[in-house]
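S1.2 Input.
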Amino acid sequence: MSGLSGSGKSTVAAALEQELLEMGAHAYRLDGDNVRFGLNKDLGFSEADRDENIRRISEVSALFTDCGVVTITSFISPYRASREMARKIHEDAGHMFIEVHVHVPLEEAERRDPKGLYKKARAGEIPNFTGISDPYEEPLDPEIKINTHEMSVHACVGALVHELKARGVISGGMRINNGQ
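S1.3 Output.
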């Protein structure tokens, strides 16, 4: 899953992971919020560091997939070239790669701003901030695009589960509460 900060990537990824686990699938979520504090704590936010961040995550994701885990990755991943590298790592290992664009207009991401990052970036306190002082190259042809400003978390998870079923990754019915 790729998208701007505040697009809902982490929220949707966590809900998808929970749904897959409840369906009996082996699933694990790698998220920018948890990986940056451990595996990639030595990396900053330069273009080279962002590329290395995605390369490492892709290698770890491929290892999880080797043992039959549906691996959900949720990262801003602002550059098309690094997302293509991630795809190649998986495809070279014989694994399926499904690119999900978690889309929200920049104005909505700034309005949400759960961590106050856009405000700091606009004030010049955060350099290389995606969408403000660093580009976000939207995916040109993702396998699925979810518009989180138009869809509920439940609807996003439903669309992703449908895609995973259509591709033969999982089977069975959703168990998520429709009231969410």
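S1.4 Remarks. Strands lie at 27-31, 70-74, 100-103, 144-147.
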